[in-house]
Amino acid sequence: MSKYQVNKEGYYGPFGGAYIPEMLYPNVEELQQQYLDIMADPSFQQEFEQLLRDYVGRPSPLYRANRLSEKYKTNIYLKREDLNHTGAHKINNTIGQILLAERLGKKRIIAETGAGQHGVATATVCALKGLECVVYMGEIDIKRQAPNVARMKMMGATVVAAQSGSKTLKDATNEALRDWINNPVDTHYIIGSVVGPHPYPDMVARFQSIISEETKKQLLEKTGKENPDIVMACVGGGSNAAGMFYHFLDAEDVQLIAVEAAGHGVNSGESAATTVLGKEGVLHGSRSILMQTEDGQVIEPYSISAGLDYPGIGPQHAWLFKSGRGSYVSATDDEAMQAGLLLTKLEGIIPAIESSHALAHLEKMNFKGDETVVICLSGRGDKDLDNYMNYFGF
Questions:
Q1: Which of the residues are catalytic?
Q2: Which of 147, 160, 234, 347 is the most buried (most CB within 10 A)?
Q3: Which whole number is the average pLDDT over 171-191?
Q4: Sign of the CA dihedral running 133, 272, 87, 386
Q5: CA torsion angle for 94, 148, 347, 258 (degrees, to 10)?
Q6: Which domains does the chain have, with CATH numbers?
Q7: What are the pLDDT digits (tens) for 341-361?
C-alpha cells in the first residue's frame, strides 16, 4: 500500500475524509461501498477502455518538444491531454463516472465547472448516454468562457449561473452540493477534480491515472526507461496533476512539481496559491489546505485562469505537499501568459492558460542538460483565445 494513496478511512495522512451534511450521507456511503467493486468489474473495465480509445482518442501522444527542449537545454516531453475529445483531461474522469452512475441506476447528472472544460466533458458523456445534465457555473466564468457554455447547451445540458460569493468555481461547487442534497435518490454528482468527500479524490485520481500509466509505456518506448526525472503539472483542485503523478508516487527519484496560480502575485491579495497562503481546514467535504481568514471564512481566490481559480487543493495534494513528496510552487498571470505564448511560437501548440502555469515554471529551473522532464499539457487554448487576445493585444 502506498503511503501517498488513500487509506481505508478515506484519508491521505491527516487530509481527506467525508465532512458532509447528514442529508448527503446515503449518497456518499453508497459510493464509498461500491466504487471499487464497480470499477474492478471486467464489463466496466472493458467499456471504459473502449470509450477511452474509440471516443476520447487515447492514448494521448507523448511529444518531445524539440525547440522548447533546446531553449531550456534539457529533454522536455509534453503529455498531450489537449488532444483528447473535448480538449482536456477532464473527459477521462467523466467517462468513468458516467459508467459508474449508470451502474448505480442514476438518471440525472449534476456537475460544477470553472473553466467550462469539466462542464463540457460532463455534458458530452450525458449526451452519449442520454442522461439529464445540469451544470453549475459561476456567473463570472459564464462570461469569460462563453464558447464552452455554448457547447454545453448544444449538447442538451442546462447551465445554471452561481450568483453568490465570487461567482466562480467555489460558488458553483456550493450550488451543486445544494442540488445534490435536494435530489439524493436519482442524481449522481460528477465532481471534476480530486476534491470533495471520500471517495471522490481517490475515484477521480484513479480515472485520471491513465495519464501516467500511458506516460510510463511511452517513455520506455522513446527513451528506454519508464520513469522521467521530473514530472510537472498545474494545480487548482488538482485532477490533471493527480493523474500525471499517480504511477510515480512511490518512485522517490522522480521529482513531482505542482504549479499553482499566483494571480497578481502571492502577496497581492489576488492569488490562488493555496499551499503558500492556506492553512488546514475543511472545504467542500474534505479536510485539506485552503485559503481562509482567521475565523475560518474562505478567502476569495483569483487567477486569470478560470480552472485554477479555487481556494483549496485536493487532500492528496495537501499530503504530498505536507510530507515533502511534491514541490508546490506558483506562477503569476503574467508568467503563465508569457509561457503560453512561448509554447505557441516555439511548437505551434496553443495551451490552455491552466497548463501554461506549469510551463512557466521552466523559467525558474536549473537543468543539468540530460534530464527527462514530462509536463502535463492538460488542455488546449481554444477556450482561452479571448484572454490571450486581450492580454497581448492581438
A1: 90, 112, 378
A2: 234
A3: 92
A4: positive
A5: -50
A6: 22-51+90-204 (3.40.50.1100), 59-88+209-392 (3.40.50.1100)
A7: 999 999 999 999 999 999 999
